[in-house]
Specification:
This protein has about 675 residues and is α/β, with parallel strands linked by helices. It folds into two domains: about 325 residues, Collagenase (Catalytic Domain); about 200 residues, Orthogonal Bundle (Neutral endopeptidase, domain 2), CATH 1.10.1380. About 55% of the residues lie in helices and about 5% in strands. It contains 28 helices and nine strands. Helix 6 runs antiparallel to helix 15.
């Protein structure tokens, strides 16, 4: 049930959305600003201070920002769609999720068959077959297995094997020895114990030993963590491309039945695949060998239980929330059931729900405006490359060829996914979820060896986000983000350049950030840089990494400048490109001062107000360890202090905090 605090959060969200749409002359949210602050001292506080004061984190959130406001707005639209859907596939799925009485009545019955299969495992030689069953059910045990384009033959889909099998957010949570990490591990052990105790009561098991089971899982997952490479190393595509035959893979982990796994997992026959982290698989062989069969079975039972907890009776769901959200991220209470069920429907049948969302909520003018801005921003990127005095002609030629090859997708897929083969029943939430997962797993597995479908989307239409895909060399903007505050048809062009214009520039810059630059225009992992230009790029990128590595979201925590490098470079580059587009527009027609702000000032306010947010301390810690994006404060001030044009717009002077003595710039 939604408490008074939860209802207050929802009311604040609605009020904030109304304020964002309120008719200021420019579209700048004047009520969000704190004009007692000097913009040259802390522009984020100047642009967002009042918003942050008036928008505390709601009880059912761990972070609250403009993205979240819009996501909640879209969520409410999706709920209306689902409630009116009746006996349709999406309507039945949503109804089954909302039917808590049936979920409680069934208890753990839905997972009993899989628990019995794990318990029946009589030797390690049968492990591969059991992992197949779990992976087909969406339970991520031991390692990751997925289908994606071949990094060096990007027009073909291949299988990829990667490190995995952990529960905590990152390998370092198992390995770091600072007091905070030690305390979190203790709390994780308490969570494991509580979940195993719940399972023992549900099974009426007299032989269960939650304490021993907890130790077994901790020992196994810690060993997996030690074998894993860190996030910074993993985000470098040169570190994660090792194409090999199935026979060569078998030599890495001879005690695991790879041939049985690959022949049974439901994929077409394969001769070769990519092994992202060979050393992880080498270590995995030893981990399996050194763990008792009972210990392995306990780990598998745990992974099944945790992946199913949200589909089981309330005690399991509550304990899962208590650790994963309350302890880890500082969320005070679970979201109301309807929110969880809307999100579940979006995950399971995303394009079926998305098709209805587009029909109800997406206006064609937004798509047309986005396409126009994409063209403008791409034109600015072309000029930026041509004028880059640190690049030689040979590399510029390759960069321009890649830019010309970029394609863009706006709003929603050209062809909607067909879910007609997925059986959905109004009284079987667990089964509905399982069948939807199996459909998606098998749909992806059967891409192997086939040409890459570049029209396919990686996000559903209501999603408030955007992305660049290096293997497909395309930029993608779901309908969900093409709304205020990112794009507001009632706002000035300057504000929209600072909002959706920067988002477009951000995604386009990803094609040339420290990851994207390693792929050519065809989407292949290929070094097309001269040694001199690569060195110049790295020096510029190091400036960004060092700058953001000095920012602290929490008193004793600093951002990882290497982990956030790609996103920070894209923020800086995206803002530069969008500002160039604004200036070109100003050269062709007059934009008026509005609300006391010049067009240039409106641009920077439009950008900053996209990032107004508050966060729990716990969430800030998790994000600093795992999120490649910087918090909103640093996405704003960090990028602006690198732009001399910002200082000019607000008459800042050398020595002001918002003016960097040595500004960084890649693009």
């Amino acid at each position: 049930m939604c408490t008074l605090r939860c209802l207050l959060g929802a009311a604040l969200a609605a009020a904030a959305l109304q304020a964002a749409d309120a008719p200021s002359a420019s579209g700048v949210d004047l009520n969000a600003m704190d004009r007692t602050v000097n913009p040259c001292q802390n522009f984020y506080q100047y642009a967002c201070g009042a918003w942050r004061k008036n928008n505390p984190v709601p009880a059912d959130q761990s972070r609250w920002g403009r993205f979240n406001e819009l996501a909640e707005h879209n969520l409410a639209i999706e709920r209306d769609i689902l409630q009116a859907a009746g006996n349709t596939q999406i309507g039945d799925y949503y109804a089954a999720c909302m039917d808590e009485a049936t979920i409680e009545r069934k208890g753990i019955e839905p997972i009993v068959p899989m628990l019995k299969q794990i318990d029946a495992l009589s030797s390690k030689s049968g492990l591969a077959a059991e992992i197949v069953r779990l992976h087909d059910a969406g339970v991520r045990v031991l390692f990751g297995f997925r289908v994606a384009p071949d990094d060096k033959q990007s027009d073909t889909e291949i299988a990829h094997v990667d490190q995995g099998g952990l529960t905590l957010p990152d390998r370092d949570y198992y390995l770091k020895t600072d007091p905070h990490s030690v305390q979190l591990r203790k709390q994780y052990e308490e969570h494991l114990h509580a979940m195993f105790a719940l399972l023992a009561r549900a099974e009426a098991s007299k032989d269960a030993d939650p304490e021993a089971e907890t130790r077994a899982v901790m020992e196994f997952e810690t060993a997996l963590a030690r074998a894993s490479i860190d996030r910074v190393a993993h985000r470098n595509p040169d570190n994660t491309y090792h194409k090999m035959t199935v026979g060569e893979l078998t030599l890495l982990t001879p005690d695991f039945g790879w041939k049985e796994y690959i022949s049974s997992v439901g994929i077409p026959p394969v001769e070769s695949l990519n092994v992202a982290v060979p050393d992880f698989l080498k270590a995995l062989d030893g981990i399996i060998a050194n763990t008792s069969l009972a210990g392995i079975k306990t780990y598998l039972r745990w992974q099944l239980l945790r992946s199913s907890a949200d589909l089981l009776p309330r005690p399991f769901e509550d304990e899962q929330f208590r650790f994963n959200e309350h302890i880890l991220r500082g969320t005070q209470q679970a979201p109301p059931r309807w929110k969880r069920c809307v999100r579940s429907t979006d995950r399971a049948l995303g394009e079926a729900l998305g098709q209805e969302f587009v029909r109800v909520a997406f206006k064609g003018a937004s798509k047309e405006k986005a396409l126009q801005l994409v063209g403008e921003i791409e034109g600015e990127m072309r000029k930026d490359i041509e004028n880059a005095n640190w690049m030689t002609p040979a590399t510029k030629e390759q960069a321009l060829a890649k830019l010309r090859a970029v394609s863009n997708k706006i709003g929603y897929p050209e062809k909607w996914r067909d879910y007609s083969s997925v059986k959905i029943a109004r009284d079987d939430y667990f089964g509905d979820e399982a069948r939807a997962v199996e459909f998606e797993v098998q749909r992806n597995f059967h891409k192997i060896g086939k040409p890459v479908d570049k029209s396919e989307w990686g996000m559903t239409p209501p999603t408030v986000n955007a992305y660049y895909n290096p293997a497909m060399n395309n930029i993608n903007f779901p309908a969900g983000i093409l709304q205020p505050p990112f794009y507001n048809p009632k706002a000035s062009d300057a504000v929209n350049y600072g909002g959706i214009g920067v988002v477009i520039g951000h995604e386009l810059t990803h094609g040339f950030d420290d990851q994207g630059r390693k792929y050519d225009g065809a989407g292949n992992l290929r070094d097309w840089w001269t040694a001199e230009d690569a060195k110049g790029f790295e020096a510029r990128a190091d400036c960004i990494a060092n700058e953001y590595g000095g920012f602290s979201p929490v008193a004793d925590v600093k951002l990882n400048g290497k982990l956030t490098l790609g996103e920070n470079a894209a923020d800086n580059g995206g803002m530069h490109l969008a500002y160039m587009a604004l200036m070109d527009s100003l050269a062709n027609h007059v934009m008026e001062n509005k609300d006391g702000f010049t067009p240039q000032q409106q641009f920077f306010l439009g950008y900053a107000q996209v990032w107004c947010e508050n966060s729990t301390e716990e969430s800030s810690r998790v994000r600093a360890a795992t999120d490649p994006h910087s918090p909103g404060q640093f996405r704003t001030n960090g990028a602006l202090q690198n732009m001399p044009e910002f200082g000019e717009a607000f008459s800042c002077k050398v020595g002001d905090p918002m003016i960097s003595a040595q500004p960084c710039r890649v693009w």
